[in-house]
Amino acid sequence: MANPVMAAITTYDQARGSFSGGCLREWWMKIPGLSGASDNDTTDMPIYYLLNPYNQDLVIVDALAVITTASGNVAEINVGLGDDAAGTSAAAEVFDTLTDSATGVLEGTVAQVITGGSKCIWRKSGTSTDSYLIVVQGADVDASALRWNLFLKVTPYDDMIGREGEQAAVTVA
Prior knowledge:
This protein has 173 residues and is mainly beta.
């Protein structure tokens, strides 16, 4: 008499795409040498912008601002995503009112709570929305002495949504 099979578990195909092994790729990007504006009469205009340098949508998992020289003024730096270099539809998903009153390392992105927190998706070049990282100075102060670096921890969105088939589908005999 053969052993009866109660359940057979099938898993995803490990040989497909970047999902092999069931892991997410992630890396830190450094955006060095940032400063504040000396005179910012128009507070909704970007002082920096960066088009997504990768040909894929990226989820910004974490962000660090390393302030090496404080300006002594409260510049209220916002970092978020916009539709173009002019900052159309720019928001503050990464840092909301980063203050430059002291040197140090500050963590950005949405604070995590039990129910979870939303992470932003930095869209690839050629997308109509959110393909630019935008830095905006929100206060009309002289923050030209501010020196800082921005670090973004990113993972490809495709790795998260996967296209590897069904995970742990159970077959009952």
